[in-house]
Structures are given as structure tokens and as C-alpha cells.
Amino acid sequence: FQVDWNVCAVTARVCHLAISLAPGGLEQLVVNWTNARNARQAGSTQICTLDEGGALQRQVKDAEVSALQARRGRFPWDRRAVSRLRQILADVDVVHSHNLAAQQYAVLASRRLGVRHVHTEHGSNPHTGGRINQVRLHYVGRKTDALVCVSQDTALKMAPAWAVPRECVHVITNGVSAHVPLSGSDQEQLKATHGIPSGAFVLGSVGRLSREKRYDRLIRALAEMRRHAPRPDVVLVLVGDGPERPALEGLVSELNLAPHVFFCGYQENARSFLNVFDLFLLSSETEGMPVALLEAMAAGCPVGITNVGDCLDVIDGGNAGILLPDDEAMWPELLAELVAGGREALLRVGAAGLQRLETHYQESATLDAYEHLYGGDS
User: What is the pLDDT of residues 184-197, one digit of tens each?
Assistant: First the structure.
């Protein structure tokens, strides 16, 4: 899909509905898409959250953000939150929900309002088991005007959960904006600020420190690398925060890696760290279409990924990135070979990744595809 924004004005008033704006991939996309759409036409897009706003709310420009503070533990749902959401949706044309809890509340609130409902599932939802969840998914699947998944893998798993034919589910891949590089001096300043040694070979990742991201595998791989081929200049940098941080810090201490692993916490401009990574690593056990991976490729940073979601397709089967073996016991040897091969070889991988990103995963193309759904195209 292509929309010529020089001659075609945004007409639909859209409200994105997410659980929160706490740091995360889908939440960052909601903020980015809202800002981009409002830049095209001021006041066209707003955000509503079921829970609190969250840290990413500070990045929202010139858009209203409403927080329902829904008591989602109430069975079967928080009627007060539905009523409040219905008032908000009365002033919009489209509600665009993100993930299952938001989809349910959007369905309940948009009934009889004449508001079009577009829903995006950003990964294979874990709440698909059990009779109650099956009934809920079947109901919201039938009551949503357009069902979207960010990857083919997610669509194949979610279509049966919604009880709809696979061809009824749209796949719109995520896209990201162009990367803004840091100057050499700013890169050194960034390293100095976080204690990262100048000249170190930096293995890095950006993401929420949660169980499914499996950052423990990167930490153990680094420990094994150092045991067999000591390289004091190789470090691991993790940008992000989350519930697994204490356990990960404990593992680093247990393996005597404290001087070589850097926890940088949540960073409002996390993309700037991609300028100092020599190799971006995605170690997840489950993903849909990870934003951090796309942002790394947009920065020309070479990437290494696990074969989850559509990640292997993102790197064109290995032509635009490096596939980490299913057997994580092989990671230390592979990483040692990549480090030994030097930065120049990895930069060629990064260049291929950038080209792949520019031809397949542009933010503008993603927004254009959604614009057609907002307008009622099937």
C-alpha cells in the first residue's frame, strides 16, 4: 500500500488503546505511530491506556493520553473502565487496540458506537489456553473489524485462537524510522557515562529484562567465551530494565563477570546505544517482530538472532544478519569466531542489514498499510 501524504489528508480520528506506556516494543510503536500521524495532521491521533501511562508518555508529542486505571482483576471486566472508554471513543472514528486485554475492552466499549475497531497482536499471546480464554478470544475475534498480526508466525498461531480463517488476518510488519547516528565524540561520551571501556568490543542488546528475552544465555555465553579464549576487551551491554534484572545481576556476580557486563537500565534514547554496539544480539525464546532488531538494522549495526517469530525472515535467511544456533552451547564458539573476525567483517553484515531494513521495514510503509484499514479497506 502507498498513500501520497502530499495530496491525501488524514481524515480518520484514531485512538490507540494499549495496556500501558511502560517501556516495551509495542508501547514504543504506539508512541512513534501517534507522533508520526499527528505530524501529518495535528490532532488526528490520541492514546488511551488501560492501566497507568508509564515512562514512554514523556515521548508523546502534542497528543492527548488518557489512563483508565482499569481494575482488570475484576470478573468479567471493569464496567467503570468500559464506560469511561466509551466516552473517549465517542469522539473518534477508529479504535486501534494492541494485544488481547486491550482488544477485549475495545470490543466492549465500541459496540453500538459506530467506531471501527482495528486490532494488532504483537506476538503469540500466552493467554490462549483454557476454556474461558478460548471463549473470550472467539468472541473478540468475531467482533473486531480488522485483525492484524505483526508477523506470519503470529498470524498462524492467532487465527485459530480467534476462530477465524487465516486469510481473514492481515499481516502488517513493523517498520521503524531512519536512525540518527552519533558522532565519534558523542559515542565516546556515551561509553564514558556508563563506564564502558573505550575500545572494547561491545556485544549488546536493547529490551525489557523479562524472562522470555533470555539474557541469561548471553551472560553464560560470555562467561564460556572468556573461559576458553580470554578477551578482556569483550563486554556485554544490556540496555533496559525489568523484573529479571536482580536475577541477571546475581548470575553476573556468580560467574565473576561484573567488570565485563554493563546494565544501563531504561534509557529514553535507547537507540543511541546502537552506535556503540559492535554486534547486536537477540536471545529471545519468543518474539513477533521485535522493534529493537529493526532499529539495530536501521543503525547499520550487525545483528545476531535466535530463530523466533519472523526474525529469520527479517534477516533474509541469514543474508542480512547472523543466525544463532538452536543449541546455545554453540554460542560461545560462534561469538568468539565473530570477535576474532574483526569489526570490518561485521560491518559488511551491518550494511546488508541496513539495505534489508530500507527496502522492507520502513515506518512509512507500515503507517500507510494501517491507514487503508482505518479507512475500511479489507
Answer: 999 999 999 999 99
